[in-house]
Write a structure and sequence with these properties.
By secondary structure, this protein is mainly α. It is built from eight helices and no strands. Among the domains are: about 70 residues, Serine Threonine Protein Phosphatase 5, Tetratricopeptide repeat, CATH 1.25.40; about 70 residues, Tetratricopeptide repeat domain (Serine Threonine Protein Phosphatase 5, Tetratricopeptide repeat, Alpha Horseshoe), CATH 1.25.40.10.
Length: about 240
């Protein structure tokens, strides 16, 4: 029975060794594709990086938590410009990593993925976390400054665009006000023209009163003249009688 038990253990150990060799075979093949893709610096060979990704995933199906293989998978995703996926993978690696330097590398690459996806605030935070774990990393410092400067430029450009929009709104408002004023001027001009075209047969109350006073005065004078004439005629008649 002891010999049988030893044989079973040996076979189990052999199976594990064979299984591990298959996993490493996938990793080696993935590394081969990845290295070949890096050789041509004139272009990004997405096909080879995709093949590397497939091989790394085969290995991780057998050993999902291996940090190096996950790192290789994340890099292959990044090279294919799958920045959303690579950022998530690097985040997972950083959370699982116990070594500060390894954690900083994962956070650095996570920052790169976020930066390439134009998520500047998140990338800046990733670089800062990387530097907290590895303060002397010059590449991370450079990338952090680059991301911060890029954010500053975008904010300045946004302010400039907002200012131009406000100026355009003010111009439109001035145009509307000018249109309203022009309309008012045109209406006033029409009213003046209509008044000029109307017959001028209306007089003001003051003028009417003055004319009435003048007529009354003229009438009084006329009556006084009439009375004087009548008086003279009466005198002339009396004289004639006396004669």
């Amino acid at each position: 029975m002891k010999q049988l038990s030893l044989m079973i253990i040996f076979l189990f150990a052999l199976a594990i060794l064979t299984h591990a060799q298959n996993e490493r075979k996938f990793v080696r093949q993935g590394n081969k594709y990845y290295g070949a893709a890096l050789k041509d610096t004139t272009k990004i060979d997405s096909t080879l990086f995709n093949k590397a990704e497939i091989e790394y995933r085969k290995a991780l199906d057998k050993k999902p938590t291996d940090p190096k293989w996950n790192f290789n998978l994340s890099n292959s995703l990044y090279k294919q410009m799958k920045f959303e996926e690579s950022a998530e993978k690097f985040k997972e690696i950083s959370e699982l990593a116990t070594d500060k330097v390894e954690k900083s590398y994962a956070l650095h690459n996570m920052g790169n993925s976020l930066l390439m996806n134009n998520k500047l605030d998140e990338s800046i935070e990733a670089y800062k976390q990387a530097l907290r774990n590895n303060p002397k990393d010059l590449e991370t410092k450079y990338n952090l400054l680059y991301a911060m400067n890029l954010k500053k430029k975008q904010e300045e450009e946004q302010k400039k665009q907002d200012k131009n929009k406000d100026q355009d709104k003010d111009k439109d408002k001035d145009k509307d006000q000018n249109k309203d004023q022009d309309k008012k001027d045109q209406d006033q001009q029409k009213q003046d023209q209509q008044q000029q075209q109307q017959p001028q047969n209306k007089i003001s109350k003051q003028n009417a009163e003055q004319m009435l006073q003048a007529l009354e005065t003229q009438e009084k004078k006329t009556q006084e003249k009439v009375k004087k004439v009548q008086a003279l005629r009466a005198k002339s008649k009396q004289v004639e009688k006396d004669w």
